[in-house]
Amino acid sequence: MEFEMLAKTFRGLEEVLATELVNIGANNVQLQRRAVSFTGDKAMMYKANLCCRTASRILKPILSFDATNPDEVYEQVKQINWSDYMSVDSTFVIDSTVFSEVFRHSKFVAYRVKDAIADWFTERFERRPSVRLDGAQLMINIHIAEHHCTLSIDSSGESLHKRGYRVAQTEAPLNEALAAGMLLLAGWKGQSNFVDPMCGSGTLLIEAALIALNIPPGIYRSSFAFEKWNDFDEDLFDTLYNDDSYERPFDFKIYGSDNSPHAIKIAEQNVKSTGLSKYIELQIMPVQKLEAPAENCMIVTNPPYGERITSDDIYGLYAALGTTIKHKFAGSSAWVISSHEECLDKIGFKPTERIRLLNGALDCWFCKYDIFAGKRNDYVAKKKSEE
Q: Residue 59 falls within a domain, yes or no?
């Protein structure tokens, strides 16, 4: 039986996520604000959690309604037959997201949803399920946009960007779902050698390997919320989890380097935990010393943004990156993300593509640089003649 679902994501990755959902067989895929709605059956819900690289969580809406105050929300939520989803002995938690002039306090809305569920059980069983902030069996999400309310159950649990392979991290690691989104936006499919010259804890390297080999990112996780649901189908989930028929060979190599020995040590631990060490090569090296491992490479990197280093050092780092890729990586393409346009300017040549993304709270540009030998005008003319 098909039902509606909502996959949440980050700003700028909606279209990438929609493509992912179409590719795994979802129906009625539609773009939303930082989300993608779709329909599918239970197997599709399990698959979306296992396979979607750019989703943060998969929600299953169970009620949509309009309300003008928290008491109306209470009355609507109390209409649901809650024994379909949980028992008196279950534990639950409420998460609320509110974009509304009418409902100003998201915590109060969550409180009223909790009251409605507790009262529904108390009236029927003279007992009520307990609220548990960590490890609850049922995670319930109330989303309010002005007057419109959507009540959903969260099938994911902990955010899907927490893959389960990260055993250590540097000070500001890249979110795994954002890293995967950057790679998919860059057109990475495992078609060449891959280089990240400022790899930090190795997130881009690992996500690049998972994409190249077509390994689902969810296989490293210890659990999903839907495993605690009343209707969990363990056999179906095991079949999907153990299906490696869509994995593919990767005939190139992924190279990561960083000038910090500490970062490389952390990257080594994370790569080892994925079991992908044979595809990923790491070394301590400043960007100035970087050499192209082959003629055709894809470079994707997330340099420091200057939040924690002085401007002279940061400008020099971007300038060194520009010089290195210009002189040593002719014929390759490079993608760089940064929140500082003046830093990107130091790379020294114009991007051929710019995509706006959000890294945490920072507005960023994700820029593509085509690296050509000789003069840019000659390169542009050659490209046009090939089209």
A: yes
pLDDT above 60 for 357: yes
Q: Does 359 share its domain with 269?
A: yes
Pick the closest to residue 224 from 176, 154, 131, 134 (CA basis). 154
Is there a contact between 363 and 339 (Cβ–Cβ < 8 Å)? Answer: yes
Residue 216's pLDDT is: 97
Does the pLDDT at position 83 exceed 90?
yes
Q: Could you read off the pLDDT of 248-276 as tens digits, one per residue?
A: 999 999 999 999 999 999 999 999 999 99
The residue among 154, 186, 204 that closes a domain is 154
Start-to-end Cα distance in the chain:
47
Phi, psi dihedrals of residue 331, rounded to the nearest 5°? 90, -5
Same domain, 147 and 181: no
Largest Cα–Cα distance in the chain?
80
Q: Examine the domain organization and report whether 190 and 330 are in the same domain.
A: yes
State which residues form the domain around 76. Answer: 3-154
Q: What is the pLDDT of residues 314-349, one digit of tens each?
A: 889 999 999 999 999 998 999 999 999 999 999 998
228 occurs within a structural domain: no
Closest to 276 (Cα-Cα) out of 254, 293, 297: 254
256: exposed, middle or buried (Cβ count in 10 Å: 0-12, 13-18, 19+):
buried
Q: How much of the chain, in percent, has pLDDT values that exceed 70? A: 94
Same domain for 147 and 196? no
How far is 116 from 79, CA to CA, in rounded Å?
Answer: 9
Q: Which residues pair with 98 in a beta bridge?
A: 144
- The total of structural domains in the chain comes to 2
Note the pLDDT of residue 300.
98
What's the CA gap between 174 and 183, in Å, rounded? 12
Computed from CA positions of residues 13, 14, 19, 23, in that sequence, does the dihedral angle turn out positive or negative?
positive
- Asked if residue 230 belongs to a domain, the reply is no
- Residue 26 has phi, psi (to 5 degrees) of -70, 150
Summarised one tens digit per residue, pLDDT across range 89-109 is 999 999 998 888 888 787 889
Task: Calculate ∠ Cα 357-144-25, nearest 5°.
Answer: 60
134 and 193 in a single domain? The answer is: no
205 and 117 both lie in a single domain: no
